[in-house]
Design brief:
The protein has 39 residues and is an all-alpha fold. Helix content is 82%, strand content 0%. Helix 2 (8-17) crosses helix 3 (22-38). The radius of gyration is 10 Å and the shape is globular.
Amino acid sequence: MLWFCFGFGAWRTLVKECGWSWDDAERWLARQAVTIFTS
């Protein structure tokens, strides 16, 4: 799952395809990574 959170594909999907801002994508991906490691 980490490959999604930190890979270029995730950024591209959220920013280019979904129209998110870089800041929103960064915050969401960081939260997902924390959730993965603390679950």
